[in-house]
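During the first year of the project, the team set up a workflow for recording each protein of interest as an amino acid sequence followed immediately by a discrete structure-token representation. This format lets reviewers and collaborators read both layers of information side by side without switching files. As required by the reporting guidelines, we include two representative entries from the current panel. The first entry is reproduced here exactly as it appears in our internal archive.
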Amino acid sequence: MEPIIQVRELSKRYQNVRAVDRVSFDIREGICFGLLGPNGAGKTTTIEMMEGILAPDSGQILFRGNPIDTRFKEKVGIQFQHTALPEFITVRETLQLFSAFYPDPRSMEEVIEICSLREIINRDNRKLSGGQRQRLLLALAIIPAPEVVFLDEPTTGLDPQARRNFWSLIERVKAEGTTVILTTHYMDEAQLLCDEVAIMDHGRILELDAPQRLLDRHFTGVLIRIPEPGERFITDPSQLPSGAEIRDGAVELTTARIDETVRRLLTMELNLDGLSIHKPNLEDLFLKLTGSSLRA
């Protein structure tokens, strides 16, 4: 399938900092594509260039094989991380206002249904909860019936129930065939929603693939973590089992044979207080690739 968006050798520099350094990737139509990375990794700059907000210093962004232009902006919807809503008007009036900006908007009833706005349709914008506000912002992004929707950390600050409700809305938007481009710091969110993820750091793509394929590539079995192994193991890692590594003062190792590995650890003088065993996730992968947290 032909990619809907192609990013080719994209670069952006701010004074002496290269925020984005020759980044290239493709996004297939109809998928949810996640762009992940810690603060300062370059993902926001990359997204803003893809949205047409920032001009790249070099490189190219193609939409259906053509350079992005004003027509591209008519085919995308954007939910920014921070958006000011008009005050002293209702959700319905806000939808009517934004619908007037487009030559052929979706019907209001369709937008209300997709984003579950019916019970708050007559509520003043100032009285919306965090989750309700995000649902309205998503509705504003899909009013033009876009082919691509950009969602910039849409669930930041929401409670767990509101986050899960919003995930369902994203799945509904994607089920219509809309391509979703998502940035998030929540790894459970990325792992659940994204068909493909690109992990960035220092302006470059470190890895790009389906989440499970990335985990299968980098981990075998489960991850064992010992938070305080003892000072002598920190100063002399050669005493650790083969394959174990020190990260942030903790011992980490992966194994496909849990019983055997735990028995071996018990014969050593490691301090096993706080030992944890879990299946590796995207957060573990990023720690392995960069040594820093995705939320750093």
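The second entry, processed by the same pipeline in the following quarter, appears below.
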Amino acid sequence: MKVLVTGGAGYIGSVTASALERAGHTPIVLDSLERGPRAFVRDRVFYEGDLADRALLRRVVEDHPDLTTAIHMGAYVSVPESMEQPALYYDNNVAKSLVLFDELSRSGVDRVVFSSSASVYATGPEPVVTETSPTGPQSPYARTKLMMEEVLADLTAATTLRGVVLRYFNPVGANPDLSSGVHAAEPSHVLGQLVMAANGTRPRFRLTGTDFETRDGTGLRDYIPVGDLAVAHVHAVERFDEVLDDGATTRVLNLGTGTGTTVRELVAAVEEVTGLTVPVEEAPRRPGDSAGACADPSLAHQLLGWRCETTLTEAIASALEWDRRRPDVLGYR
């Protein structure tokens, strides 16, 4: 099966393209390369351009008339950046995604797997969330994700388009074959910052927020190994019609491990894997930060036959090994 992967040169997109290939499918990568490196495309079928370029989208479909499914991962993903530049996020994540969905529907590519986020959930008293837990996004980034879930629901109700929405929790680690991983020289996410502090690239890890209502005051997250996350996309593509066989036009699924880890616990896990002490500097929470939560992934297990198989320790080890290999793959530290 051919599968269009928007954002396929990015961190999660490149790992998902590898997972599709291992399962016998052909990823068709569409990426502007604004934030993803060309090296991650490798030798795959590739179209460089904007995901809202209707002429380019039509060309992709014309070149691949057997294309029926798209995985939409082309989005900006930084909460702090979205707080500083909300217009940028609404334009890229909402306006351009709307064009993409509309053009896919017009072109007959009527199956969409949409990358959403657990950040759409409201902060509540219970740390475990299901797909029916209340939503309450706390940043422009999170609001763009919830908006596009609602847009997709409206489009699927009015057209032949159908959607499976995957709400990611916190991806960590590298591609299982170590061909790709976090590519930013200074990653903004917590494990990337910890890896930099552990290897001496940064003098210390800045722990933002120590007064949340969690067991140790630091944010609680469900850290999902990115290789397992990618496999979930493969299952969503392969079982797409089964997931919607009750007549629904969209379905939301949580993707996580079901286990919450606080930031302090993550620091301890990195120290365990590396055998080093990570210097930590405590700081106030940032705008848009939340206490966090972990997933109830039982619906994904039921409908996709999927669950995480990689441990957090294994994911951390892969992130550290990728950090060592990254200069050879990308040509920069």
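For the second entry, the following points were noted during internal review. The chain has a mean pLDDT of 95. The CA atoms of residues 120 and 146 lie 6 Å apart. Both points are flagged for discussion at the upcoming steering committee meeting.
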